[in-house]
Amino acid sequence: MDIAFASETLMSLLSALPLTLELAVTAIALGSVVALALALARLSGILVLDWFARAYVFVFRGTPLLVQIFLIYYGLSQFAAVRHSIFWPILREPYWCAVLALMLNTAAYASEIIRGGLLSVPHGQVEAARACGMPRFMIFRRIVMPLAIRQALPGYGNEMISMVKATSLASIITLMEITGVAARIISESYRVIEVFVVAGAIYLAINFLLTRLIAFIEYRLTPHQRQPLAIHGELKGEAH
User: Fold this and answer.
1) Number of H helices, E strands in the chain
2) Positive or negative, the Cα torsion across 224, 229, 235, 240?
3) pLDDT tens digit at each of 240 positions of the chain
4) CA within 13 Å, CB half, 150
5) How far apart are CA 48 and CA 216, in angstroms?
6) Residue 224: in which H helix or E strand, if any?
7) What's the CA gap between 240 and 231, in Å, rounded?
8) What residues form the membrane-spanning segments (predicted)?
9) 101 with 163: CB under 8 angstroms?
10) Computed over its alpha carbons, how large is the radius of gyration of the chain?
11) The model's pTM
């Protein structure tokens, strides 16, 4: 393990870190919107929406993300209607094709996580809100969604971690994110171990920070599960 070469590689790979984070954040943010819409479609009770959401989840969860990226980047350009459409300035760019593929993929997984969170909300709390005269949208915004987020956050956190790692597939459509730069360095130096060890360490650091962030949000969203330290200390003092 050449430390000097590893240090030089680290500096080169860190230059690609902003693109990796941008891909992950954009895909997760847009995917969460699509996922919420799919989850609501599954729970809407409208047969057409329900089956559309089921079909979407079945297709995107049942096919590899690599194939989806290839189909979007290389496949859509084969259709003249796409090349002459208003979407072509976006679909001809590797960046937006990667974002689109990552977004559609994560939406399929996240929709089931969000649906599980929505179904976990106790029906009694919804009935209590209705008894207080809350309108339907207010019940969803102030009762259902906060509780659903609290329940879905651990599972959704795992999906976000998976999406950070999935950004490495964007290198196959010429995007120079961390894995793309790593592949270029390997082709120039033929030193595989040092490059991939450094690249893996960067992904590990990103996901470590992400797990800490998710744990902090989960801690903030569950104050009722935290034991009041002051009262606990007073009780111990009285016991003595």
Assistant:
1) 13, 0
2) positive
3) 678 888 899 999 999 999 999 999 999 999 999 999 999 999 988 999 999 999 999 999 999 999 999 999 999 888 888 888 898 888 899 999 999 999 999 999 999 999 998 888 888 888 888 888 888 888 888 888 888 888 888 899 999 999 999 999 999 998 999 999 999 999 998 888 889 999 999 999 999 999 999 999 888 877 766 666 555 555 555 555
4) 16
5) 39
6) none
7) 14
8) 20-41, 53-73, 166-186, 192-217
9) no
10) 23
11) 0.86
Query: What does the DSSP 8-state code read for residue 145?
Result: H
Using alpha carbons only, what angle is made at residue 31 by residues 166 and 88, rounded to the nearest 5 degrees? 90
Please name the fold of domain 3-239: MetI-like fold (1.10.3720)
DSSP letters of 155-172? HHHHHHHHHHHHGGGGGG
**Residues whose CB falls within 8 Å of the CB of residue 48, separated by 6 or more in sequence, listed in order:** none
Question: What are the distances in angstroms from CA 31 to CA 100, 144, 174?
Answer: 9, 20, 22
Query: Domain locations in the chain?
Result: 3-239
Report the alpha-carbon distance of residue 17 to residue 25 in Å, rounded. Answer: 12
Give me the amino acid identity at 179: T
Find, among 206, 176, 163, 208, the residue nearest to 31 by Cα: 163
Q: How far apart are CA 200 and CA 63, in angstroms?
A: 25
Joined tokens for residue 8: 């030089």
